[in-house]
């Protein structure tokens, strides 16, 4: 299967184009369905909360899902938990299911339409930092 971008590949497998950040350097899909995605650098982004992508992310790609994920974690209650799988339209259409081991999160598929910007941890920590609003009051 010849696809020009990771976004095209994801769409062809019933997944939204924005599951990976905008800094994908390359990807490889093995004959056994193992997907290997290389990013320019590890980074953080936001969907419904903060998410961290390692420089290399691996998963088994099947129609509508990424299973056996490695290299992706999500912050929940100040803890970073590995995302084990992502499934589209389960249990209902328009929903993405994130399995983070101790819980399942259901997110709107609309959050994943466009590849999110890749940010450093410093950029993410400064984003929406409430302390910045008080800097000029000294």
Automatic annotation (TrEMBL):
It comes from the Eukaryota. InterPro entries: At5g01610-like (IPR036758), DUF538 (IPR007493). This is DUF538 domain-containing protein. It comes from Gossypium darwinii (Darwin's cotton). The lineage of its organism: Eukaryota, Viridiplantae, Streptophyta, Embryophyta, Tracheophyta.
